[in-house]
Design brief:
By secondary structure, the chain is an alpha/beta fold. The chain is built from twelve helices and 23 strands. The relative contact order is 0.14.
């Protein structure tokens, strides 16, 4: 583990432009669809991160030919026409929730026995709702840890299809995994959602990635999807820059009163986290969107000015950016309340309770609620911030140090989960001296 990383203060507004790395969420969905497709696919814009490497290796363990040039951001995947090549496999999902949930569903298509495990924290993240849906579809799916948490054993003879229900209040990844697998079932799937749905933009992202590979996921009504058994076709597929990663650079400018331009993103992005810009606009920033004619490659969005006004906001749809907005809210002129994100307690760490603890460590006046938190601005004090092996805690709370002297990030290497060169890119964006950090 690396020593705590001190964050330099900037002393003024940060003005910069950046194209973030490819989206983790889209990369892992595209890898799954490409593996299940008829024929080969070429992916571009592939993110090099722990989560995406774990997904690629999981697919290899299941017998797929996945050839990734991580430095170039490209991948070639030889599809198997909806068949899982291996009849048995043991898969280390590490800390990757998308890998655990998506691959568990994909294993339901297989004919054999498959075991999925991960980190100690992964063994605390419930997966019972997904396994219950798989059992409804005839798959023997069992979780071994208390609370129906991994390790998971899947014994399957394929998925006929039919009908399944999944609770929508825990993780949208359960429904996404089922939907992607269901396109290769024998009869298709009518998928119903029970309870309140969380992270709706990620469900829409799944539908759009499936469509990019020739699959289909029809919205029957707000509680029902129909996934016909069309399978997927191999294709060339371009992956957008990561909107969640972009949020850190938007926030850097909003905290310091500068300007951040992110290339490759616009309103037409399939990633819901572009709506983080709307939250900053409510806080007083100016947001300018640019959509290039014909191709998204020329798209961009610029956020200008300081986020001075506190807001009351439902962040259910953009919950990955809760820690980022919390960092911004520390420097507003009035309180901010974040609501309807109870499900983020089951992320890489408890992103409500642990976030509140670290904001208080910095002197913040923060009140914890069951489904969110309230931040009342007041003078802060620098300290070493714990990250709980959570990449988003590290990347978000580092931004506090741009204005507050004395902030250091414990275990800075945890950003490798989704953004391995974050510290380099942040330093370039903020104008830090070369070599300001020891290593990514």
């Amino acid at each position: 583990m690396l020593d705590p990383l001190p964050i330099p203060t900037t002393g003024g507004p940060i003005v910069g432009a950046i194209r973030p790395p490819g989206s983790k969420s889209i990369t892992n969905r595209a890898l799954v669809c490409a593996a299940l497709a008829r024929g080969s696919s070429r992916l571009t814009g592939v993110l090099d991160s722990q989560d995406t490497r774990v997904m690629a290796e999981a697919l290899r363990r299941l017998g797929w030919d996945v050839d990734v040039d991580w430095s170039a951001g490209t991948a070639r995947v030889a599809g198997s026409s909806g068949v899982v090549p291996a009849s048995e496999a043991t898969i280390d999902c590490a800390a990757s929730g998308t890998t655990m949930r998506f691959v568990a569903a994909v294993c339901g298509l297989g004919h054999g026995t498959f075991r999925l495990d991960g980190t100690d924290r992964m063994r605390q993240r419930p997966i019972g709702d997904l396994l219950a849906a798989l059992r409804d579809l005839g798959v023997d799916a069992v979780a071994e840890s208390p609370g129906e948490c991994p390790p998971v054993t899947i014994r399957s003879h394929g998925i006929e299809g039919g009908h399944a229900a999944v609770r929508g209040s825990t993780s949208s990844q359960f429904a996404s995994g089922l939907a992607m697998a269901a396109a290769c079932s024998r009869a298709g799937l009518r998928l119903e959602f029970a309870g309140r749905l969380v992270s709706l933009p990620y469900l829409e992202m799944t539908r759009r990635v499936m469509a990019g590979f020739g699959g289909r996921c029809d919205v029957v009504d707000e509680r029902t999807w129909w996934i016909p058994p069309l399978g997927y076709d191999g294709t060339d597929y371009a992956i957008e820059p990561d909107a969640s990663a972009a949020s850190y650079f938007f926030a850097a400018s909003a905290i310091t009163g500068g300007a951040a331009t992110i290339h490759g993103l616009s309103r037409r992005s399939m990633q819901g986290d572009v709506a983080f810009c709307d939250a900053l606009e409510r806080m007083g920033c100016t947001v300018a969107w640019h959509e290039a004619a014909g191709s998204a490659e020329g798209d961009s969005v610029t956020v200008t000015g300081r986020a001075a006004a506190g807001i009351d906001i439902d962040m259910n749809a953009i919950s990955d950016t809760v820690p980022t907005l919390a960092a911004v809210a520390l420097f507003a002129d009035s309180p901010t309340t974040i609501r309807n994100v109870a499900h983020i307690r089951d992320k890489e760490t408890d992103r409500i309770g642990d976030l509140v603890r670290e904001l208080r460590r910095l002197g913040g006046d923060v009140t914890e609620q069951p489904d969110g938190l309230t931040i009342v601005p007041r003078p802060l004090t620098g300290d070493v911030v714990r990250t709980y092996d959570d990449h988003r805690m590290a990347m978000s709370l580092a931004l506090v140090g741009l204005r507050l002297p004395g902030v250091a990030i414990d275990d800075p290497g945890c950003v490798g989960k989704t953004f391995p060169d974050y510290w380099t890119r942040l330093g370039e964006f903020a104008g830090f001296p070369p070599g300001w950090h020891a290593a990514d």
